[in-house]
Write a structure and sequence with these properties.
The protein is α+β, with helices and mostly antiparallel strands. The chain has one helix and ten strands, in the order H-E-E-E-E-E-E-E-E-E-E. Strand 4 and strand 5 form a beta hairpin.
Amino acid sequence: MKQKYVKRRITWVDILLLVIFIGLFILVCYLGYKTFTVSKQNVETVDIVIPLIKKGEPQEFNVDLSLLEPDDKMTYYFKISNYRENRVNKNSIKYKVMFTLPKDIDIKLYDVKSEKELLNGGLNTSDFVLQGGKKQDNLYKLIVKSKKKMSKDDSISIRIES
């Protein structure tokens, strides 16, 4: 005896369930993409890495501002670590970050992990600590806003003192 297949009509409930399924699938794909790109961004978009290996050896670097126009904003990422290649500092190191900048520039410095502002209107941070014995990275985001057109010689000097 053969079984008969009965054709069923598609109802509005079937269409609604299909739309919900497609919406959830798109949402899961989007969240997966954002999670992957945000975690990858923290590693790959760092403009400079500053290893602090010995206490008392200040590090200094400059951020070029020559391309900034009036009311332009620039974001600059830098990372301070307690290791170079596989050589990890065995002792904890305290450090602070200090800025020297030209007139007509406003800056804000954020810790990327906590999104906390670190300067609070000044040009120096309080003390931070890199623990000894295991690799540690502190990632910072510097936001620069120009009030006027910058010249080719304008830059921000960033000094890390340990």
